[in-house]
Amino acid sequence: MTPHRGPQTAPTALWDDCRDAALYVHVPFCTRKCPYCAFYSIPLDDTSLCRKYLEALDMEIAQATRCRCIRTVYVGGGTPTALDAASLELLMGTIRGALQESPEEWTCEANPESLDGDKAALLAAAGVDRISIGAQTFDPDGLRTLGRRHGAADTRRAVEACRRAGIENVSLDLMYGYPGSSLRRIEQDIRNLMALAPAHVSVYALSVEPGTPLDRMVQRREIELPGDESHALQYELLRRRLAEGGYRQYELSNFALPGYRCRHNWTYWSGGQYIGCGPGAHSFSGGKRWWNPPDLVRWCTSVLESGRPQIEFDEHLSSEKRARELLVVALRRSEGVNRGWFRTLTGFDYRQLCAPVVRQLCDLGLLTDQGDRLRLTEKAYFVSDAVFRELI
Ligand code: SF4
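^ thats the input. predicted complex w/ iron/sulfur cluster below
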């Protein structure tokens, strides 16, 4: 099947041919749009639209989880905690009601300014056991540059609120490579972060996405981004300081204390099946991937009319394409790719599938292939996208 674009209702086969899956729920609301953001989200200023969203989500989740065993849940966005407490409780009740058993992990994303004690308590009561907080930086100038609404004190309060609610598994996002970021600021951010002792840390470089206000500012030369070398040094410093603090890097952007690896995201990097609900959410199951329209009104209308969303795009992956994609996502993991595991899952030997590229990348010192395990070398961490382009 060739890629398909355009209106179509999700065929039954897309929904019914897998059992174990990870569930992603997209909440498309934010209090305000950050200038660098390319995720699908809209300002939360129409309560009737929010009610419709919750109604449609209830229908979509019920369909999507039918006959499936949901292993992990991830509620992301947008900003789930931008919803008022009553709506957030309704959303969590919808998810909980659709699950046949307690998931192994249930994460909810939060922004520091919108996570208070009441919301943390209702999330914990619903079954959420992991909260991922978008701290980004503790530096007031940095937060202003990124157009964030919170301050460092909000991040501290949000972490405290999680702990008081009994949620110990807290992850903090940190950003680097944004205008004005520096090694000195990274050192300060790491000190502030360590003082909060989160179980998990994700670090992301600011990327300039086409069409965003940030992109326009860069085009007009109103702001200047750190160069590649500065970017790489900031990433290296983060890696070093986090390792010194006892955080093990288990993926290119993710670090955890022992036992706190994110299970949901691990499914993505290990070729597992996932079902996405909500506008713009992506799914992968039974060798097919598809995604919902990134448009709240269009998504709502189709779900409320037919019980299932109109799908924006679907694609059946050939076994070779699927194998190549798995190789690339699995190489994001520090443990790399075991040859036997890969062959069992895909039917391909990566040495033959990607010959002679694997050999060439090994010769360049960007991959190692030792003991039947293929890994990125540390030298390749910062240029991983270029390595992946060669393998795909
Ligand atoms: S809070 Fe997150 S999802 Fe919302 S606009 Fe900012 S970066 Fe995007």
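Residues 1-17 have pLDDT under 50 and may be disordered.
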